[in-house]
Amino acid sequence: MLTVKQKIAARLEDALAAMCSEGAPSAGEIAAMLEYPPDPTLGDLALPCFKFSRALRRAPAAIAAALIPAIEAEEAVGSVQAVGGYLNITVSDRYLAETLLPRILSEGKDYGKSDMGAGKTVVLDYSSPNVAKPFHIGHLGTTVIGHSLKRLHEFAGYHCVGINYLGDWGTQFGKLIVAYRRWGNAKEIDEGGVDKLVELYVRFHKEAEENKALEEEARVEFHKLESGDAENLSLWRKFIDISLAEYEKTYRQLGITFDSYKGESFYTDKMPAEVQKLRDKGLLKIDDGASIVDLAPYGMPPCLILKRDGSTLYPTRDIAAAVYRQATYHFDKAIYVTSAGQSLHFAQWFKVVELMGYDWYDKLVHVPYGTVSINGAKLATRTGNVILLRDLFGAAIEEVKKIMEEKNPDLADKEKVAEAVGVGAIVFYYLSNNRNKDINFVMEDALNFDGNTGPYVQYTYARTASLLARAGEMRADQIVLTAPEESALLKVLSLFPEKVLSAIAEYEPSVITRYILDVAAAYNRFYHNCPVLSAENADVRAARVALTRATNIVLGNAFPLICMKAMEKI
Ligand code: ARG
Question: Which of 17, 70, 322, 545 could form an S-S bond across to 471 if both were Cys, CB 3.0 to 4.6 Å?
Answer without folding.
Answer: 545
